[in-house]
Write a structure and sequence with these properties.
alpha+beta; five-stranded mixed sheet; 21 strands; 23% strand; Uridine Diphospho-n-acetylenolpyruvylglucosamine Reductase, domain 3; Ubiquitin-like (UB roll); 18 helices
């Protein structure tokens, strides 16, 4: 493998090339902007990707143009910018005049102390130039928090700004010249970082450095550095591996590469089932979904990750890869115990395959959290029932937040299988569900709350099948 181990990190800031050498692999873009470049409009609020005060736009080549994404600079490591374009809040007023969005927000009272305002501006500017797809304004700013004003004027400003498509063809030509052509890497003191371009290169690096930490979107690993103050000795950035960024709609289902971002997978996942689309919509704010990946959410192994319970209920399979080849296993078997996954030294998540549900399947997926948007689950439940000849032929039920890993509910499944979908069947299954889990009590909910919520989510499935509209909020309030 040809690998440059003294690579510079090069990116475009507005229309100027920035080249960085001897890069600390876990130095954040936020710190670099504020303390090295004097771009102090980008603020540090939480340093964990929750508040959006540090929102910037990062652009990637797409044909003759550039696709822009709003991301959190506080947990974006500098090597992740290599070959990309960057806009900060200062980029919008380089001529000395306010951007129309900024002027409108000043006029209509969208800002009080102003600390969070630059982040809102960048999120809304991204929406106006097409960086957020067709998401409504409220969804676009769900990852931006304001402590001192109401959101009404901010929402009004976002809705009032007409779409303003950017002509980035000239910028794209400049960005094309910065694209890495081979696997790269660097050294910072005794610490190493790598940026492979192919699956083979990634497998070779991990064979040589099986203790290296893989980073896709850094939405979790970033907090290890900014909050845990951990020093990562070897880091492998995988977002440049094109094969890991593939999303293939196959005949029997959907195959998602390990580095596919949730924002890019959202529409395809919603096509499998609307509940899955809604679940993805509530994974963090837009900035988090623009960085966080489906594969990273799985590889991380968190017991409260929102993706795995739904994918387990749908019967997903995981493909792991190493220099020795591929290994395929049911997703549910990947999670062994708290903090332990069935990923051998040198292996990485290559893809996850999700079977396509049948039209007759009865499916419900729901997340309960203390705050509706941009919050971690207290309970995340997923139910998939296959009905044949009036009986439940197969039941797959999985929960997050109920055990040390995302886990199925065998007693509940057994109580459903072979039975008609009736209220009595649901009640027996809800009681059996209580024997499947022994959840803990923590700041997100008590053990009793979690058990009651899980049973109520199963009842919600029954009520919805009867044509009654029951929202997640209704279920949460019923649980007290």
């Amino acid at each position: 493998m040809t690998r440059d181990v003294s690579s510079a990190v090069r990116f475009l800031l507005d229309d100027e090339v920035v080249e960085l050498r001897d890069v600390d692999p876990t130095a954040t873009l936020l710190d670099h902007l504020r303390y090295r470049m004097g771009r102090t409009g980008t603020k540090e609020g939480c340093a964990e990707g929750d508040c959006g005060a540090c929102t910037v736009l990062v652009g990637e080549l797409a044909g003759e143009g550039i696709v822009w994404r709003a991301v959190n600079a506080c947990i974006l490591f500098l090597p992740m910018l290599d070959g990309r374009a960057l806009m900060t809040v200062e980029s919008l007023s380089r001529t000395g005049a306010l951007d129309p969005l900024q002027a409108l927000m000043a006029e209509n009272g969208s800002s009080q102390c102003g600390f969070c305002t630059p982040g809102f501006v960048m999120s809304l500017y991204g929406r106006s130039c097409g960086a957020s797809g067709d998401l409504p304004v409220a969804d676009v700013i769900a990852g931006n928090l304001c402590r001192c004003t109401g959101y009404g004027p901010i929402l009004a400003a976002g809705a009032a700004i007409a779409p303003r498509p950017r002509d980035d063809r000239a910028l794209a030509r400049r960005l094309q010249a910065l694209q890495p052509t081979r696997s790269a890497g660097g050294r910072f003191g005794e610490r190493l970082w790598f940026a492979p371009r192919t699956l083979e290169a990634l497998a070779e690096i991990l064979a040589e450095h099986p203790d290296a930490r893989l980073v896709a979107g850094a939405t979790d690993v970033g907090l290890w550095v900014t909050k845990g103050l951990r020093s990562l000795e070897k880091v492998v950035f995988v977002a440049g591996v094109e094969a890991l960024c593939r999303l293939d709609d196959e005949a029997g289902g959907l195959r998602i590469g390990g580095a596919v971002r949730y924002a890019d997978a959202h529409q395809a996942l919603a096509g499998l089932h609307p509940d899955l689309g809604e679940l993805v919509r509530r994974i963090g704010g837009l900035q988090v979904r623009n960085a966080g990946t489906v594969g990273g959410n799985i590889a991380n192994g968190s017991p409260i990750g929102d993706g795995p319970p739904a994918l387990i209920a749908l019967g997903a399979e995981l493909t792991l890869r190493s220099a020795q080849g591929r290994r395929i296993l049911p997703l549910e078997d990947y999670f062994l115990s708290y903090g332990q996954q069935d990923r051998r030294p040198g292996e990485f998540v290559e893809s996850v395959w999700i079977p396509r549900p049948q039209p007759s399947d009865v499916i419900l997926m729901a997340k309960l959290s203390r705050r509706f948007d941009s919050d971690i689950s207290a309970v995340c439940g997923a139910f998939a029932l296959t009905i044949e000849d009036g009986l439940i032929h197969r039941a797959r039920i999985a929960f997050g937040g109920m055990a040390a890993t995302p886990r199925r509910a065998p007693a509940c499944e057994a109580a459903l299988t072979g039975q008609p979908l009736t209220f009595e069947t649901i009640e027996r299954a809800a009681e059996a569900l209580r024997t499947d889990y022994a959840p803990i009590t923590d700041v997100r909910g008590s053990a009793a709350y979690r058990l009651d919520s899980a049973a109520n989510l199963l009842r919600r499935l029954w009520l919805r099948e009867q044509g009654e509209a029951v929202s997640v909020l209704d279920v949460a309030m019923a649980d007290g």
